[in-house]
Structures are given as C-alpha cells and as structure tokens.
Amino acid sequence: MGASHRFKQDIDFVTSLIPDLYKAGIRNLAYEFYEHTHQAILDSILTAKEWNERLLYHTISSGFAIYWGYTEYLNLLKKVWEFNQTLEPNQPKFRVVLFGPEFNPCKEGELMFVAGVNPDVTMAEVFKREVISKQEKALIYTGTHHAFTRYREREKDDDCDDGYDDWWKGRMGNIIHQKYPEKTFTIMLHQPWVALGDWSKPMVRPVHGVIDSVMEMLSNRPMGFDVRGTIIGQLKADDTDYAACYEDFKLEDFTDGYIFLAPYRDIIFVLPEPNFYDEFNLKRFNAVNKCRNRPSVASKEEAMKRITECPDAHFGHLRK
To answer: Computed over its alpha carbons, how large is the radius of gyration of the chain?
Structure first.
C-alpha cells in the first residue's frame, strides 16, 4: 500500500485495519518508518503483558526516525499491542515488521546507508526474511515510491532506458514483484502526483482530476476500487512525472487498486507526540541536527515545531 507521508487519514485507516487483517489470515504489517535493526525489541514490546512506552520511544528513535515522532504512527504500534492482548495464549500474535533501512545521518549520499546498499534492496531483503521465508502474508505500508511493483520509474531526468544500473536495483516493491509476480498487489492511497519534469512545481491531481470529480459527485465518501483490468484503469495522464518514459500512461500502469479517503481540502497532517521528545530523545534530536548542520533545539516544544507540517505548504492549491 503506497501513501503520501504524514496524512492522518491514511495512518488512521491502516491502524483501523489491524483486526480485519488478522481475521483474513494476514498477521504482519510491514512498516517503513523505523529501522529494521530494532525488530527483536519491538517484538518483545508488542507481545509483553505491560505496555512499555518509554522503551519503545527510546528504541525506535535512532537515525532519521528521531524526526518521525508523530502521535499517529506511534499510536499504531500501541494499537497492535492492545490487539495482541485480546488474543488467546495459543494464538499467534499480530506483528509489525520494521523494514526501514539503517541510516547514519552524519554521512552523505550512499555512505548514509549503513548496510552499504540501496535502501530499497535492504527493505526487500528484510521483507523476504521476516515474511516470505516464513510463508506468511503481509500488508506493506510504505511511501508511494517504495510500493511500486509493475510500475517502473525513471532513474534520472533524462534516462528512459529499460534497465537499472548496478546500485539502483529498483524499488522495494519492484524487487519483490519480480520474484513473486502472482503474489503482489499494489494499492495506492489518494494523493497528489508529482508534476511532469520538475518535482519543485505545484503537484497535480491524479489522471487530470477525474477521480476527484467523480468522488465529489459521490459526496466524497471513502471508497476503494480495483484499477487493473477495469475502465477506471484506462484513465490517462500526461501532466505528471509518473508518465515520463511511457508513451500512453494509464492509471493501471501505476497501480492495481486505489483507495480514496478524503478530498484534499479535508486532509489533515499528523502531529508530533509530546512524550516522544523527552530528555533522552532531545539529545538524539540535537545530535542529528548537529551533523546535518541544523540548529539545535532547547525544548520538546521546539522539536515538535520543527517537524510540524501543514498540507497547505505542500499542495495548498489543490485544497481550494
């Protein structure tokens, strides 16, 4: 499931799915936002008899995750713990699989990736080890570009060849799909698209706003629908960078399914969690700030302000 980061509607929706996923035999949620090196500790936290918030917050705050202390993303982890408390002792627990790559924020470029490889490759390897090798199923919740399976994005502004270079092995979803094409299904959550040719340009509506217009006629009620092999999948777009290198780009080239949760004017961004930025994590926050040449902060209020964002700053022109 590919999503734009920090949409409150998106993370709340995924959180609400936990009981239904379990009933459907899906007992894993692959979660991009915190480093996979903390998996063993997270497993122990989510299956313990008592909730240990401090241990959780001090464990997952390494690297760039120190900037990801958002209430809603942390709340999902607590909801998993609460759900596991309802299960019988002989029932397998619901698991959150962390597959965020390990970062050294004091390094630049490829040196930033501690494993020394493309982060998508690392993510795919973690997923294979933690889910596929155990012959289990999972809902993968990640940023849009990691979620690509059949769709292949261009590597560079002027590069439309069919291959990837030695370092770039494709997105995490591409890697998994190439090996398990019949067992992967991409779902995209409603979000603005990157404008053609320039990521700094104002973002555009998917497929020229057709989805927005139809959902407006349907009172913008939340809805999911198949894309691949349907009339909806034939909707075209030529004003987005996703169409680059495609002669006749269609929605079904991009995703297999689609979920609409809210129009852009109603999108809310997640908020920082005050308890996350205690004295221990403030030190980590400023350590990362220092090596990234960013000003330090003196309080949790300043840290929270630093990571607070507003939808208007990203796609305000689409919210009118």
So the answer is: 20
Tell which residue, 132, 129, 140, 124, has the closest CA to residue 172. 124
Encode pLDDT of 30-60 as tens digits. 999 999 999 999 999 999 999 999 999 999 9
Give, as one character, the DSSP assignment of residue 5: T
Residue 268 scores a pLDDT above 90:
yes
Higher pLDDT, 56 or 105: 56
Give strand ranges (E) for 133-206.
139-143, 187-189
Distance CA 233, CA 183 (A): 20
Q: Determine contact, residues 29/96, Cβ cutoff 8 Å.
A: yes
Residue of 8, 53, 61 lying closest to 33 (CA atoms): 61
H/E stretch holding 135 reads none
Give the rounded distance of the alpha carbon of 79 from its chain centre.
Answer: 18
Identify the DSSP state of 161.
-
Say if CB 57 and CB 74 are below 8 A apart: yes
- Angle, CA of 78, 220 and 196, to the nearest 5°: 90
Residues 99 and 130 sit within 8 Å (Cβ to Cβ): yes
Q: Which residue reads 């122990």 in tokens? A: 44
Following CA atoms 255, 226, 80, 276 in sequence, which dihedral angle do they give, to the nearest 10 degrees? Answer: 40
Is residue 167 pLDDT above 60, yes or no? no
Domain map of the chain by residue range?
Answer: 2-190+261-318
What is the rounded distance in angstroms from the CA atom of residue 8 to the CA atom of residue 73?
A: 9
Q: Is the pLDDT of residue 154 over 90?
A: no
Instruction: Kindly report whether the global pTM for this prediction surpasses the value 0.90.
Output: yes
Poorest-confidence range of 25-39, 67-81, 142-156, 277-291?
Answer: 142-156
SS3 string, 236-280, reads: ECCCEHHHCCCCCCEHHHHCCEEEECCCHHHCCECCECHHHCCHH
Q: Is the dihedral of CA 125, 149, 147, 164 positive or negative?
A: positive
